[in-house]
Amino acid sequence: MLIAGSRLIDAPVMGLQTGGELARTSAAVIDPRTLEIVAYELSGPLLNSHPSLLRIADVREFSDIGLIVDSSDEFVSPDDIIKLNDIYKLGFKLLGMQVIDTKKNKLGKIDGYTIETTGFVVQQLSVKRPLLKSFGDTHLLIHRTQITEINNSAIVVNSEVKKQTVVQTVQGAYHNPFRKNPNTQAEHVERD
Asked: DSSP letter string over 62-74?
């Protein structure tokens, strides 16, 4: 299922053990190499350490009421998991990043993204166009397959337009026996 990434920001994190809200998500921790959300940073009065993270692997279910986990024991500090700490220290923020194409043309800034909930992978980027380019279309949707590079300053997308050859019909290459030829007369049959 595809959902907007903003829907999971400030979403409640519910515990099965207590049946109540344990925390709220405040920011996504995104791996820039794969554009995969590996964890969510949490906020709330019941947290033992700050910052606290909820790994996506520890989410039992995603539903209309929020993210559901077993208990608050699922919350970790960034220092608890080395791989998660490395990604967290990168401080990669997808929102507000510049988007350019391979010809160095500025396309705009990211103002949203769409994720699929089975793997929490970013599928589409919503790009807000600059003022002068927004007269034709104010937003662009860029699929993850169009991304060629992610660096510290911008996301580079493919700018090449595939040229499609136009198939031209060949006149007189075949004869359709069911089409009447305009030059021929209908046959005349005499009856007695």
From this structure: EETTEEEES-GGG
